[in-house]
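Protein modeling request. Please complete all fields; requests missing the sequence field cannot be processed.
Requester role: graduate student
Desired output: 3D structure, token encoding
Chains: 1
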Amino acid sequence: MPVTPFHYPFAFVVSKLDRRLILPGVVVGAVIPDIEVPLMWVFFPSLPDHLLLHSLIGASTVGLLLAVFVTRVFYAPIISLFFGVDKGDLDDACRVTPALVASCLIGVWSHLLLDYPMHWYNPILWPWVNPFDVMGPLVQFFIVSGLGLGDAFWMALNLTQGAMIVLWAVIIAWYLNRGLWRNHWLGRPAEAPSGPFE
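Delivered output (198 residues):
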């Protein structure tokens, strides 16, 4: 699994595919499935740490409900506090609408899509298919290339995380002089940078 914040750049790109998508919903949806990992470690240590929220059925139901709730209740105060974005603008963007619900759903699905290629076990079809019977294609590729399972997983993980770090750098560079926090966290198009002659 990419470290949870590394799901953000992919979610950001996904949110730009359709102007009707609401960035806060896509972003929260993209990180919500990983809240199960510490819970599984504490309460169900004998089970895989990716299970319900990393399955299509769990992400599309429980994950969706959690994402809508967290977006509505927590996104505006947290982003406003840490990034100085107007809380009223954020509250308005996080109203529960069909577009927000669809955005949260696409966000949780984007999480599964990014995780799928690089897991050595994958609960995407759980409970119908054993998670240990579904290996990500990147892991399979590295195994076919001659690596053992553990090394193949680490290669797939590092390749995925490396790609997300590069994408994150591109996003920040693009928004840096274009109203980074105000426009970026609301999902608005980047403004042209203001120069000394404008």
